[in-house]
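Inverse folding, one chain.
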């Protein structure tokens, strides 16, 4: 309760005097207040200046710009190394909170103040900071900056984060994030959202189109892509799907702020943060989709989770919920399909189309049907998940770190993941690989759909 602070009412004081006043104030607060009364804030009337917040705040409030892929606006905290990604109302905790997804220098010990804007009034609460355990040893990690809300406050629409011990009585120069997820919704525009978390130097146009078309056959109607950069051809495909309302591209330019590592461990490629800042992107996607999508799938464009007994995720998920319980997250076993090995000649009716695709960059996943033997489970990294986002608080690359329910490992005879990529030297011989033709049962529909998109994007002639 002592985290709700009184707003500044004092003139500029020397640091020592200020500290003394602060210590006394906190002590007073701690000793005196026991009831809800202490939560009643003194407020500061405040008008959001266009020059202060992100230029697009007004548009973002209208909602449409956000849906079209408004950038997660990275904001630095003045006087700290912290970077703020996005903010959401967290309805599931008591008291409610504003969650600010942040990237923090793990060794830096800071105390942060939430400046919450509700109907032109500024309210203050002291943030609690929780750095995710999955930082893989990099100096920066993803952090949840939580701003507790007093029960008698209105929900804030914007939040700015400042150092708690820096004196700024006029609150000048605050940079605000829009607080998303204002309302709890129980009906969702999308059934399944896939989150592709780190698109960097991306050129696999054919595989991307195949994956996106395949996901639609499975029942996916939203794909959020965190994009750093890609080839011109890939961009054409992204624009095409964005115009259709299927894809939401979130510009992900963390490399302008930090030295992002291109690998999963500092020993493989030293840098400030794990793999292009994939983890904050995934958490942003989870919260961004929370009241928009019934389920969220966290995987990459080279990964496809395929049901074995039914044809789509729409049919699979009710079966899994019946077997394992509702509101779970479901874990799907990874199987590598090395692109170094190719299918024996496919059925003749699909061959002409596949021949034309040869001019499009990237592997044709329909021709790589030999899998490496599955790794023993459970390993921390040999799976991906589909989850009800409203059951989950924190996600990582593989799975969930904090959730309301447990996760269930789906048996491979019900569904498993097909991960088609160049594997380099694995030492495996062709005799050790296992043929798995599940993808071919979609081949007719998939081939037609992919050819249509390649023609409509002028990557293939009509
Ligand atoms: C979501 O799934 C339901 C049940 O499978 C289906 O009736 C509905 O059309 C789907 N919604 C969208 C937007 O595809
Ligand atoms: C980008 O990808 C291309 C081909 O896929 C590769 O040759 C190149 O080294 C990559 N560049 C960077 C900066 O990763
Ligand atoms: C992506 O950015 C890197 C680094 O700036 C650059 O080397 C690479 O060529 C870019 N890739 C594409 C496909 O544009």
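Residues assigned per position:
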């Amino acid at each position: 309760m002592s985290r709700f602070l009184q707003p500044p009412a004092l003139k500029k004081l020397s640091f020592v005097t200020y500290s003394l006043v602060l210590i006394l104030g906190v002590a007073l607060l701690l000793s005196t207040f026991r009831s809800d009364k202490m939560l009643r804030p003194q407020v500061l009337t405040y008008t959001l200046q266009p020059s202060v917040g992100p230029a697009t705040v007004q548009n973002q409030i209208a909602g449409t710009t956000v849906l079209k892929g408004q950038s997660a606006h990275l904001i630095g905290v003045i006087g700290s190394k912290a970077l703020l990604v996005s903010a959401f109302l967290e309805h599931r905790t008591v008291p409610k909170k504003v969650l600010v997804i942040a990237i923090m220098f793990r060794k830096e010990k800071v105390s942060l103040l939430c400046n919450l804007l509700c109907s032109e009034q500024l309210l203050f609460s002291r943030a609690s900071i929780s750095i995710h355990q999955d930082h893989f040893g990099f100096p920066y990690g993803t952090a949840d900056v939580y701003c507790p809300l007093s029960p008698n406050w209105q929900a804030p629409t914007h939040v700015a984060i400042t150092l708690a011990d820096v004196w700024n009585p006029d609150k000048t120069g605050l940079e605000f994030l829009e607080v998303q997820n204002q309302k709890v919704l129980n009906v969702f525009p999308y059934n399944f959202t896939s989150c592709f978390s780190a698109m960097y130097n991306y050129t696999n146009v054919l595989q991307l189109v195949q994956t996106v078309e395949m996901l639609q056959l499975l029942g996916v109607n939203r794909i959020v892509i965190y994009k750093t950069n890609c080839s011109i051809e890939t961009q054409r495909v992204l624009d095409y799907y964005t115009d259709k309302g299927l894809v939401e591209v979130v510009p992900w330019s963390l490399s302008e702020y930090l030295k992002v590592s291109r690998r999963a461990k500092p020993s493989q490629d030293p840098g400030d943060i794990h793999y292009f800042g994939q983890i904050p992107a995934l958490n942003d996607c989870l919260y961004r989709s929370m009241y928009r999508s019934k389920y969220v799938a966290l995987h990459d464009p080279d990964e496809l989770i395929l049901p074995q007994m039914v044809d789509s995720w729409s049919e699979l998920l009710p079966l899994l919920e019946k077997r394992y319980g509702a509101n779970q997250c479901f874990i799907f076993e990874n199987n590598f399909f090395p692109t170094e090995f190719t299918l024996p000649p496919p059925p003749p009716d699909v061959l002409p189309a596949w021949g034309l695709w040869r001019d499009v960059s990237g592997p044709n996943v329909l021709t790589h049907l030999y899998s490496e033997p599955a790794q023993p489970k459970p390993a921390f990294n040999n799976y991906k998940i589909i989850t009800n986002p409203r059951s989950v608080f924190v996600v990582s690359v593989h799975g969930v770190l904090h959730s309301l329910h447990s996760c269930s490992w789906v048996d491979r005879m019900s569904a498993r993941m097909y991960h088609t990529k160049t594997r380099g030297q694995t030492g495996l011989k062709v005799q050790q690989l296992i043929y798995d033709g599940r993808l071919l049962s979609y081949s007719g529909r998939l081939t037609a759909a992919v050819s249509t998109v390649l023609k409509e994007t002028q990557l293939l002639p009509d």
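Residues 201, 203 surround 2-acetamido-2-deoxy-beta-D-glucopyranose (ligand 2) (CB under 6 Å). The domain at 190-456 is CATH 3.90.550 (Spore Coat Polysaccharide Biosynthesis Protein SpsA; Chain A).
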